[in-house]
Amino acid sequence: MIRNTKTFMVKVPKKEIAYFNFLLESYEGLGISRTINPKEGILEVYVPEELEKDFLDFLEGLKGEMELEWSKS
After folding, report:
1. In Å, how far are 14, 56, 67 from 61, measured between CA atoms?
2. Of 9, 39, 41, 48, which shows the fewest CB atoms inside 10 Å?
């Protein structure tokens, strides 16, 4: 079954890319990320549309741990 997804561009400090990916993977099914530009810390994250609010809550929760910017594509 193919689910509809939303795409987000997320920018994190480059030293936090692996940590961000680890945390995202720990929320099984919340999203799939790929690194677009490792030097800039830019990631593209695909999120099932029914989990968009959960993903935004995830990002809001991380704001206290790391510098974070995001936009919806």
Report:
1. 19, 9, 11
2. 39
Average pLDDT over residues 4-20: 97
DSSP the chain: -PPPEEEEEEE--GGGHHHHHHHHHHSTTS-EEEEEETTTTEEEEEEEGGGHHHHHHHHHHHTTTS--EEEE-
CATH number at residue 24: 3.30.70.920
Can you give the residue range of the structural domain that contains 13? 5-72
For residue 2, pLDDT beyond 80: no
